[in-house]
Design a protein that fits this description.
It contains four helices and nine strands. With 185 residues, the protein is of the alpha+beta class. It has one domain: Gcn5-related N-acetyltransferase (GNAT) (Aminopeptidase). Strands 1, 2, 3, 4, 5, 6, 7, 8 and 9 form a nine-stranded mixed beta sheet that branches.
Amino acid sequence: MLTNPDCIKPFNHDDAKLVAQADALLDRAFGIGRRSKTSYRLREGERAVEGLSFGLYRDDSEMGQVLRAVISFWHLRVGEHGHHAVMLGPIAVEPHLQGIGLGAMLMRHSLKQAAQRGHQLVILVGDEPYYAPFGFSRVPDGRLLLPGPVDPARLLFCELKPGAFDNVGGLVLSPSRFQPRTKTG
């Protein structure tokens, strides 16, 4: 449960100390094997979406602000036309604090911020029973292709604007790897 000293604040990916705290939290939550997943390949070498990374912090009189949970979003391009989407993740909560609603608070806050900033489509790899209450649904089989192995049952999308997923399909890439299709002849 969120208590008075807990607060959601923007997460600064340029703060090396904070990034180290987040990496340690992610390792505790998911293990070091997390770095080999396809979703990590999509984030490699990219910058998180400005204004859509958040941490849940608790003020500690001895340690200062302690990161208890973190969430980030990353730009994506989908299909040959490069439809814009954002990828949610990672989202992580300290293992001993899981199950009390901290992740849900970050989800609601960050999705609201994404919509207010004009983002229309969110993609993630995760458990549908957890993400469905936030508006996520399973991507129809074959509609999206990620550049690595992904369990199709875990590939989810959320329309922040109705119809945002209409006519979107194909290979999902990070912006630096996307090459717009050019007409020839």
